[in-house]
Amino acid sequence: MPHELLLFNTLGRRLEPLRPIVPDEVRIYTCGPTVYNEIHIGNLRTFLFQDLLRRSLRYLGYRVAQVMNLTDVEDKTIEGAQKAGVSLAAYTEPFVKTFLRDLDALHIERVESFPRATEHVPEMIDLIAKLVDKGYAYESDGSVFFSIAKDPDYGKLSGFDLDQARRGERVASDEYGKDDVRDFVLWKAVKPSEPSWDSPWGPGRPGWHIECSAMSMKYLGETFDVHCGGVDLIFPHHENEIAQSESATGKPFVHTWLHGEHLIVDGHKMSKSLGNQHTLPDLLARGCSARALRYLFLSVHYRQKLNFTFESLEGAAGALRRVDEMRFRLQHAAERGEPDPRLAEAAERLRSDFAAGLADDLNVAVALAALFGFVKEVNVAIEEGRIGTGDRQRVLDALADVDRVLGVLDPAEWPEGQTREEDEAEIERLVAERNTARGRRDFAASDRIRDDLAARGIVLEDTPQGTRWKRR
Ligand SMILES: [Zn+2]
Fold first, then answer.
1. Burial 126-157, CB ≥16 within 10 A → b, else e
2. First and final CA of the chain: distance in angstroms?
3. Mind listing the pLDDT tens digit for each residue in 259-272?
4. Residue 194 CA to ligand 1 centre (angstroms)
């Protein structure tokens, strides 16, 4: 039986236990990127929150089926392709590649399916036709609009006040055929030189909102468990997805809506004009570590704003260093005698406290406190020479176990994550460690450290003034 998980449902704004339709499988839809530019770290924070969600679900005993769409037909992709004078596919493909590259760089798992909007236009047309048949949508000059007046519970996700919206709303130049300014477009009649598909209403292209309804229901069913995205998508995008989907099927669309908060930079909203709209490649070029970035993003609860600063990134690197140092000391500690039952207990406590933290609306602060409590206990055991037979592996196994969720604890999986300074600090530490071992005449341990360093191309020279090291 999977562990029960409480999540904050935006629909209803309260914490609720997750009750998947299939008891041990969670079906998730995530609004993916519009592939018209390189994504910034604010987008990456949202995708990392979803990575934490899927990994936590698995840790707690669920299977996960997750779908993330790629929006490749939308105003911005069309405009970009026109400016570049290339086809939509040729324009969007490089941005699909850079998107996946950025996910990989932060060790964000690939979801089970990445459907593209352009490959699902027939499904969108079917859904729109259903809405027209049922009287929820109407055609006007080759475009089709959803009639909000026909949907009495419109606004239930966002708490949006419809009457207020009626006043003073601007109508986009291509949406003048609407009966009501609040109605939103499902199908846009073709404009000269734009890509288009044939439909019962003439040539045109789908609106953005219908893309997600059609693709999520195709892959996950008319009702599924979890839909997530950034808070900026609650209105109108997710509100409109609910309106379209539930009007078409007469069934609840999604049980649990989860939204990740924004990332801000140095206390300010990210914007092109402030020059603080960082991308991952920008940060890596400045020598930032992708590993520290992953840790930083994980360490702030998904419903809190995350203020990105270079100091906070250093703080994240420092936290990881504490775990790395423990790992190195452990690897070089000699196992003596019987295993220490206190370490086995500490490992069990880590697993259960970590799971309890995640099960409480992904409370990473609690989960990380359990991790650092464990690190401290292991350090004390090393200092007191209490590492017995099998204890080293027991500790490493516990770390690997929680790292199935964190994905950040094993430095060997982040070869690029170490800056030269970090590397040198680590060498200095190992040299000091070796001297301590020699001081207590533990030559097995000191030889092991020397061999490890030699394997990394570091040569030691013992002099009357102390040990020097150099790169071979
Ligand atoms: Zn969407």
1. ebbbebbeeebbbbbeebbbbbbebbeebbeb
2. 54
3. 999 999 999 999 88
4. 22
3 alpha carbon – ligand 1 mean position (Å): 29
Give the pLDDT confidence score for residue 301 in this predicted structure: 98
* 239 strand-pairing partners: none
For ligand 1, the distance from its centroid to the CA atom of residue 453, given in whole angstroms, is 50
- pLDDT score recorded for residue 217: 98
Distance 30 CA to ligand 1 centre (A): 7
The answer to whether residues 177 and 140 touch, using CB atoms and an 8 Å cutoff, is yes
Ligand 1: distance of its center to the CA of 48 in Å?
17
Q: What is the pLDDT of residue 88?
A: 92
Low-confidence ranges of the chain (pLDDT < 70): 162-175, 416-422
Tell me how crowded residue 381 is: count the other CB atoms within 10 A of its CB. Answer: 20
* CA 237–ligand 1 middle distance (angstroms): 6
pLDDT value at residue 400: 98
pTM: 0.88
> What DSSP line would sit under 248-302, residue for residue?
HHSS--EEEEEEEPPEEETTB---TTTT----HHHHHHTT--HHHHHHHHHHS-T
| pLDDT of the residue at 436 | 87
CA of 17 to the centre of ligand 1 (A): 24
